[in-house]
Amino acid sequence: MVEDGSEEEEGEAEGERGEMLGAPQHNGFLPGKEAENGGPGGCTAGGGRVETRLSRRRLAVLAVFSCYSLVNAFQWIQYSILSNVFVHFYSVSFTEIDWLSMVYMVAYVPLILPATWLLDARGLRLTALLGAGLNALGAWLKCASLAPGRYALTMAAQAVCAVAQVFILGLPSRIASVWFGPAEVSTACSVAVLGNQLGTAIGFLLPPVLVPNTPDDIDLMAHNISIMFYGTAIVSTLLFFLTGVVFEEKPKYPPSHSQALLQAMPPEDYSYKQSIINLVKNVPFVLLLISYGIMTGTFYSVSTLLNQMIVTHYEGEEVNAGRIGLTLVVAGMVGSIICGLWLDYTKTYKQTTLIVYILSFIGMVVFTFTLDLGYLIVVFVTGGVLGFFMTGYLPLGFEFAVEITYPESEGTSSGLLNASAQIFGIVFTLVQGKLTTDYSPRAGNLFLCAWLFVGIILTALIKSDLRRHNVNSGIVNMDVKAVPVDNPVERETCTALKIQSDL
């Protein structure tokens, strides 16, 4: 963990004094007490005490992150939803416009390991500033591409936004763990994921309103595009400055016992390479990595090819195809929040993940066999159900990964999950697209159903070892010793805080 060193305002600290949060009082863990010799947030051996508090700033951090994540997702979808407009404006093919969306997936996979290393080595604040800053830079570069013949520049701008995404998608679980207490951590993660989904939803709705298709008036088309581009740039720049003001590395006091333990570990004891090795050797995480990739890759594929599937059976219904896509996203937003609240209430990570996976499989089967019935309202309903469970699975996967890999970095586990999703998404989109074109949408969807069934089996095999929850609940008895700041020799004893991956 990188030490920020900034202090909370005195009034805020006093206001928070009564806002205590801690794990049940097991094994000498007593929230709200000063740690002997260690001070607030310190740790002591045996009957030691650790103070945990909720910071008011946590809500502002979550809100600002969700907003700039929203803008990044909006910038991803704004081209594909207006593909016919941009094909005409830049005089390029539909394939070239499709690459303006595909670049997000392509950029993520090779950059995720450097990005997660940066998060672990340089911390949350710098990573957040990079994500928000690159997002704003890409938006302003798009403003410079407002002329026919500047497709290469708009592609470069979108590539910058794609790099920004690498510093965004892996942060929800890290922000939730570092800033939020055990009773709200899953809900916070869901809200952080929700921002990205909301950006996609707005991306379905707003661009067609701002940029109507005017093929006979290129000047008017350029003017309408400029409104969208400049508006996005101004908003993303404002969010970049807010990120600089609001984000801190961590709150003054840890929000949970598990965070108190991690923050007491000497930074030199952390090895990014060893963390990756630990994750690769963690069999439950590897199973989750594959099953998460299958589920999320399936959702990416269905979302990408939805228009093609709909117009095959409902000719001329392109507008309703977009609305069905919006239904998937909005239903998924509701699913994310409900799943997050449920996890915070029950802590039943594996059971909930497995049930949602099974329901997603059932929803995909029903969607597949009702798509060609001739009733568009049925597609709206089945599409909404599919989006509810598939997108609701996203925060479940993040939080389950954090639980079974603690004390490894949340950013690294989330980053690897997202990389898996991007890889499966690309492969599934290519294969399903080929099957849909050569045979029928049903053939492509049955291909995805088969993979979802494999994902159910893999999920059922995951061992539910809730390490973070056990620490917060006091179930795991830790030998923790207080170490004076001015004694570097005795500081080594704090390595007892490390929870080895083979626990």
UniProtKB/TrEMBL annotation:
Single GO MF descriptor: choline transmembrane transporter activity
Highest taxon, organism lineage: Eukaryota
Gene Ontology biological-process annotations: blood vessel development; embryonic digit morphogenesis; embryonic skeletal system morphogenesis; erythrocyte differentiation; erythrocyte maturation; head morphogenesis; heme biosynthetic process; heme export
Keyword Transmembrane: yes
Domain Major facilitator superfamily (MFS) profile: 61-467
UniProt KW keywords: Cell membrane, Erythrocyte maturation, Glycoprotein, Membrane, Phosphoprotein, Receptor, Transmembrane, Transmembrane helix, Transport
TM segment ranges: 59-79, 99-119, 126-147, 153-173, 185-207, 227-247, 283-302, 322-342, 354-371, 377-402, 414-431, 443-462
One Pfam family linked to the record: MFS_1
Name of the protein: Choline/ethanolamine transporter FLVCR1
Gene source species: Gallus gallus (Chicken)
Source species taxonomy: Eukaryota, Metazoa, Chordata, Craniata, Vertebrata
